[in-house]
Amino acid sequence: MTTTESSTAPSTALAETKKSGGLTAAASNYIDERTSISAAVKGLGRKVFPDHWSFMLGEVALYSFVVILLSGSFLTFFFQASMSEVHYDGSFVPLKGIEMSAAMASTLDISFDVRGGLLMRQVHHWAALLFVAAIGLHMLRVYFTGAFRKPRELNWVIGFILFILAMAEGFTGYSLPDDLLSGNGLRIIDGMVKGIPLVGTWITFLLFGGEFPGTDIVGRLYSLHILLLPAIIVALIALHLVFVVVHKHTQYPGAGRTNQNVAGAPILPLFAAKGGGFFFLVFGVIMLMGTFFTINPIWNYGPYDPSPVSAGTQPDWYIGFADGALRLIPPGLEFVGLGGTWSFNILIPLVGLGLFILLVMIYPFIEAWITGDKREHHVLDRPRNAPTRTAIGAAGVTFYAALWAAAGSDIIATHFHVTMEGVIHTMQALTILGPFAAYFIAKRVCLALQKKDREIVLHGYESGRIVRLPGGEYIEVHQPVNEYERWKLVDYSEYKPLMIRPDARGRITTGQRMRAGLSRWFFEDRISPVSTTEIEQSHGDHH
Amino acid sequence: MAKDDNGGKELAAADSSHGGPDVPIGTAVVTRDAIANPGFPPHDLRITDVDPKANRRAERTVYTLFYVSIVGSVFAIAAYMAFPINPEDPGSVRLNNLFIGLGLSLALLALGIGIVHWGKALMSNHEVIDERHPVRGSDETRARAVEIFEIANEESGFGRRTLIRNSLFGALIAFPLPAVVLFRGLGPDTDPVELLSHTLWKKGTRLAMDPSGTPIKAVDVTLGSAFHVIPEGLQDLEHGKLEEKAKAAVLLMRLKPEDLNELPERKDWSYDGIVAYSKICTHVGCPVALYEQQTHHLLCPCHQSQFDVANHCEVIFGPAKRPLPQLPIAVDSEGYLIAQSDFTEPVGPSFWERS
């Protein structure tokens, strides 16, 4: 960004606008003389954004957040974040006269008595589900293409915090209507927090303003949901985007693209058109979902009551992995000793998931340390060209997916007519063994794809044209790729494992040993990009 | 290929992504004979660039879509008025939702498709190339930044006047501490452990149906049946109804007395095969609401812990550890089921101070 040239910009802009005249020019001049905004236009207006479908995932997240803000603001005008008891007196006949909290009653009113209210509720909920999903997919894109590498490590961390905050927003919002399902969700949170040694009991006591469920929690979650969390999210999104501007967007390998340039559409007009249009598309699709697909029909669940619960209840999708972890823990892990009760059946999922997401957060720093690579990277890796990273990612995805699927263990058991115990044991095995299998398979697939790329570069692609030689032999004609296509297949860095070398005092530290070991793990199996010499040799073979 | 305004001015050599000769850092392999970047491929023209007819067609499509979008918005407003919610007719909510939603979806999608089509078909799609510069500040900038900090340090004496500096740190650390204290007010001035250890049940409290509150007679509990139970009087509480219910909810079941394997000290906690257990799961507190009559197993629908009613509700599967607490019951002179006492241990999820 080059906003530093702003000092000279207004005068030139002034001179130009004076000349051209007209209302727009006059207005622009008026604003610029008071804001020096021409500098921002100059700096940002023709900023380049590369084009790729996977770059839209972050946009989906951003736009669904805007939809959440819009629909959420509408809902606040009708929702009452109060747990005071009322007798429902709205249009939904089956619940008429039932005792419930004002929160539940006002949510029912939004659904049944406010025109368009149900639509806005469903739009809000669908947009929230999409928001978290889009962030998750965006993170996967960033991970598997190595976009988190220097200089973008900090932006990865910001994005990661946004993911956590999005889930927190989701959970607090889910809890607000005070219906049977959300109350049970809070009950589970209460039980989990109580399992924390030493302070757990007091934390829940303070959180709920006394015993569960109390009459405070909805109001408190509401403050978090509409004030504190959105404020932090908006600030972090702004920071996230500032970094995108500072770093300039990454690009996939392609002919002409280098680490020193970025090629794509300028913000004005093309990227603004595509991005702006895409916002309306995302909004429109969410609107269609809100129109046609019911989400969270609280009128079927009824108000919260600690006694009943229906079978087959599920949290919103993004909480699934935590719920699954709670289900998969083997029996009997709770002990009394050292002055208190140790609920390892809760602590292991809590700490385990904590470590897992911590690993996700610090992964860029781990990889940077292992590779020792201090260069800036603006050209993305194709996932196959970083086999170990891709394999680690596949293992992580499998771990998450197994926990997530476990949150539906009862549904799986009833739908497929298998035993509950069988499902749980299978999921336990999948959670532990699945990541190893995924790691191994993904790594081999990556190496195989790299070999295929080499083959194509050296000998061309299979043209599908079969030729019979004079001797009667059939061969398939291979067509060489053109140099632009070829570049995509060879533009990646190759790394070799780190050698252990004694430091200045002649010692080999444990840290160094570990680093060398990890480096060997990362880079021992590798396929080099094709070199010019190899190409020349292969041509020699053919002719 | 167009260049942007600020490109190419202060071109510093950023590191190459691909083994150029100047890549000494890290473990990247330096390839001397790497294939050279062929440069940008020639620009492909779109049909709208070469065919004026296609160009006009695209233009027509775009403005038609914008008009369609206006129609969608108007339709949504009209639907708002034409399909009001009629409290007498439950279907009216559905129509209201459907038609407002359709109008808005049409407005948004037509607008979105129109703008994107405008961009993709009509706006220049020549790739613009922007130069990158290293993210780090230039050496002069960094030197100047260091200099500014040094001047600031000199002028303020921040490094020199250590007493001022350290006491400032102390004050900055101390001033948020009152906020921590303020948050004590989030919970009332009662001991949570005391509250968690007692429920509404006491000697002589009748077992009543949930939610009606009708007391239950022992003769009404037929073999194999299960009742959702609350303490009598819970429904009449002015305050804290849900808090009490969250602790006091009980499941009542009748088994054949010979099916019950009762501990000697709990022999008189049941009545003629009728047993009462806390309904609140000892894992994280969901209601253990599913009773399987044939096997006498209770299943928690949240995390699938299973409890064996025949064996004092000990855990036979799932993450829970402790058996569900048993409520000692008896029958009063009128034949109603009553509690002999409160639960003898805290119900619900484990907590640190429990034992």
TrEMBL record, chain B:
Transmembrane segments: 62-83, 95-116, 168-187
The family this protein is said to belong to: Belongs to the Rieske iron-sulfur protein family.
UniProt cross-references to CDD domains, sorted A to Z: Rieske (cd03467)
Lineage of producing organism: Bacteria, Bacillati, Actinomycetota, Actinomycetes, Micrococcales
Domain (Rieske): residue spans on this chain: 247-338
Topology of the protein relative to the lipid bilayer: Multi-pass membrane protein
Top-rank taxon: Bacteria
Subcellular locations according to the entry: Cell membrane
Transcription listed as a keyword: no
UniProt name for this protein: Cytochrome bc1 complex Rieske iron-sulfur subunit
Pfam families from the UniProt entry: QcrA_N, Rieske
Organism the protein comes from: Cryobacterium tagatosivorans
Cellular-component GO terms for this entry: plasma membrane
Keyword line: 2Fe-2S, Cell membrane, Disulfide bond, Electron transport, Iron, Iron-sulfur, Membrane, Metal-binding, Oxidoreductase, Respiratory chain, Transmembrane, Transmembrane helix, Transport
GO terms assigned for molecular function: 2 iron, 2 sulfur cluster binding; metal ion binding; monooxygenase activity; oxidoreductase activity, acting on paired donors, with incorporation or reduction of molecular oxygen
Keyword Magnesium: no
Stretches for region Disordered: 1-22
Function description: Iron-sulfur subunit of the cytochrome bc1 complex, an essential component of the respiratory electron transport chain required for ATP synthesis. The bc1 complex catalyzes the oxidation of menaquinol and the reduction of cytochrome c in the respiratory chain. The bc1 complex operates through a Q-cycle mechanism that couples electron transfer to generation of the proton gradient that drives ATP synthesis.
